[in-house]
Amino acid sequence: METMFGIAVDGVAYGMILFIISVGLSVTLGLMRVVNLAHGAFAMVGGYVASYAAQSAGLPYAAALVAAVALTVLATLPLERLLYRRIYGSANELAQVLLTIGLTFVIVAGINYLFGPTLKRIPLPDLLTGTVALGPKAIPTHRAFVIGAGAATLLGLWWLLERTDFGIRLRAAVDDPAMAAALGIRTERLYLATFALGTGLAALGGVLGAELLPLEPYYAIRYIVLFLAVVAVGGAGSIFGSAAAALALGIIDTAGKYLIPNFGEFFFYAALILILFRWPHGFFKGRTA
Amino acid sequence: MTRTLRNALLGAAFGLALAAGPAGAATIKVGVVAPFSGPFGVVGKSFKEAIELYQAEHGKTVGNDTVEFVYKDLDQANPAQSKALSQELIVKERVSVLAGYFFTPDALAVAPLIDEANIPCVIFNAATSAITEKSPRYVRTSFTLWQNTVPLAEYMAKQGIKKAISAVSDYGPGIDGEAAFKATFEKHGGTVVDTIRMPLKSADFAPFMQRIKDSGAEAVYAFLPAGPATLAFAKAFNDTGLRAAGIKFFGPGDLTQEPDLPALGDAALGITTTFNYSRAHDSAMNKAFVAKHKEMFGSYDTVTFTSVGAYDGTHVIYQMIKNAGGRIDGAKAVESVKGMSWESPRGPLTIDPDSRHVTQTIYLRTVEKVDGKLENVEKEAFPKQPDYGYKLAK
C-alpha cells in the first residue's frame, strides 16, 4: 500500500513536470497549428538565461525566472515576425518542420558556442531545497513547488482561453482566419500574442524542469520526443488533455520503472501506442480548450 | 591512350615509393578518431590538448622522423562511421598508428582493419574489458570498469558494509560494472540485495530511488555515463532523502569527472569513487602537467581522465616509433611496448604483456571542496591493479 502511494506521488510529480514543459507546445501546436520543433530550443534558451542570471548576474531565483521568461519572449518575437508568420496554416506542415528543426540546430550551435558543452545549473533558493513529507512519503520541495506551479498554469490557461475575450477571439481566429478577419478581429496581433504565450510557457518549463532535465546544448533535441508524446496523447490544443496525458504517462512510466526496471522505457512507449490506438487524436481532441 | 597509361604507371610508381617510404627523415602520421563536436565534444578537446601538451614537452620529432597527428571527428557512438573514418585514415592519409576512440563500439569496429593493415591501435578511452581480446594490435592506456570496481567493492566490504545494491545504466560498461561489483562484493562476504539496470534515456530517477530505499541496502554502487544522467541521478539521490537516510554512495570515478563537478555542485559532496586519475592528484609531475595545461590553454577546467589517457597514449606511440626506428610494423610495434613501464601524471604505469592494458594505481577519492572548487580528493591508493575483466567479462 505504501509502495503504491509512493509510486502515485512520484508519478504525479513527474507528470506535472512533463506537463509544465509541454504545455507551451500544446499552445503553439494545438491552438496555432504550428508544428514547432523549436519548442525544446526555446525552453533551453529560457533555462540558460535563468542560469546566467542566477549564477553570473547573482539574481535571486524568482527574479531569474521572470527574467528568463521575459527575455525569451522578447528574443523570439522577431522570429514570429520574420519567420513563423510565413508558415502559419495547416497547408505548410512540411515547411514548418523544416524551418523549426533548422532553427533548433542554429540555437543548439549558438548555445554551444556561447556557453560551452558542459552542464549548467540553476541554483535553487534554500526555500526550495530539502524535502516535504506527504504522509509516509517524502518528496523534494522543488517538485512540490512544480506541482503547485503546474496546477496554477493549468487553471490560468483555462481561464484565459475559455473565459476571456482574448480566448474567444483566438479560438475564432484559429477556426476560420478569413471569417475572423472579416469580423474585424486583428488576427495578426492575436497570433503574435499567442506565440509569445507559447514561448513564455516554454521558457517557464525550461527553468522549472531544469532539475529533472539538466541544461546542456543538446537539450533541445534530446527531449523533443517527450514533449511531442505528451501533446499527441493529450490532443493538440487541449490544455486539460495535456495535463491528463502528462499525468497518465508520468504515473505509468514511474510504476513501470519501479516494478520492472529492466523493461526500461517499454511501458512509456507501450502506453503511448495503446492510447493513440484507442484515441488517435488524443484524449480531448475537439472538445474544450 | 599511351599517355593515360604512362600517367597511371607513374602514379602507381609514385604511390609505391610513398608506401615504401624513404629511409631517412620521414613524417609518421597518427590518426586520432574521437568526438570533437556534439555532446561529447569536450572529450576530443581534452585528447587534442593532451597531445599538443605532450608534443610541446617532448618535441615533434622522434629520431629523424616528424610525428604528425591527423584528427577525425566522430560525434557519437557509431561503429560503421568509426570504421569508415579509420579506413580513410589508413588508405588516404597513410597513417602508421590509429589512436583515440571514446566509445567501446567505435573501438571494436576497427579490429578487422588494424589486423588487415597491420597497424597498432592505441585506445585512449573505450573501457570495456573485452576490446583488447579482439585483436592483438590493441593497446589501451585508459582504464576498465573491472579495474576500478574490484578495489572499490573490496573497500566497501572492508568498511563493514553487508548489504549493498547496484544501480547501473543498461549498456555495456554498466553491465561490466555490475558484474565486477557483484562478483567481488559477494566474494568478500557481502550481499547484493538487488541489481537495477536503468534505461540509458531515463530522465526521472525517483522510481529507482524508491526501489533503492525499499531494498534496505546500506550502500549503493552506481554507474552511469557522465553527463546529464549522472547529474540527475546524484540530485535525485539527495532530493529523495536517501543521503539523509544514511545510505552511502559509491561508484567508479566517471560519475564525478572534473568538468561535471561545477554542475553537480554540493550534491556531489561526499560521493566516494575509485578511479585512475584525479586532477587533484598530489605529485610533482601532475602539478607540472596541470600547470603546463593552464599555461598553454588558459585554464585547466577540461583536465580529466581523458587527458591522461591521451597523454600516456601519445607516450606509448612515441615509444613505438622510437623502437621501430622509422617504419612501424603493427605486430612488432605492439610487441615492443609490452611490459613497458613509465611514470605518468597519474602515477606509475606498466603495459601488461597479456591484456595490453595498463596496470596502474587505482585511487579511492571523495568529493570535497578545495579552495572553493570541488575536487576528487584522494584518500587511499591501491597500487598495481590489472584489468580484472580480461578474458572474464562477456
Automatic annotation (TrEMBL), chain A:
Keywords: Amino-acid transport, Cell membrane, Membrane, Transmembrane, Transmembrane helix, Transport. It is found in: Cell membrane. One of its GO terms (biological process) is amino acid transport. It comes from Azospirillum lipoferum. Belongs to the binding-protein-dependent transport system permease family. LivHM subfamily. GO terms for molecular function: transmembrane transporter activity. The chain crosses the membrane at residues 12-31, 37-54, 61-79, 94-115, 144-161, 190-213, 225-252, 258-277. GO terms for cellular component: plasma membrane. It comes from the Bacteria. It is a multi-pass membrane protein. InterPro entries: ABC_transp_permease, BCAA_transport_permease. This is Branched-chain amino acid ABC transporter permease.
From TrEMBL, chain B:
Keywords: Amino-acid transport, Signal, Transport. The keyword Signal applies. Pfam families: Peripla_BP_6. It comes from the Bacteria. Residues 1-25 form the signal peptide. Residues 27-368 form the Leucine-binding protein domain. SUPFAM superfamilies: Periplasmic binding protein-like I. GO terms for biological process: amino acid transport. Belongs to the leucine-binding protein family. This is ABC transporter substrate-binding protein. It comes from Azospirillum lipoferum.
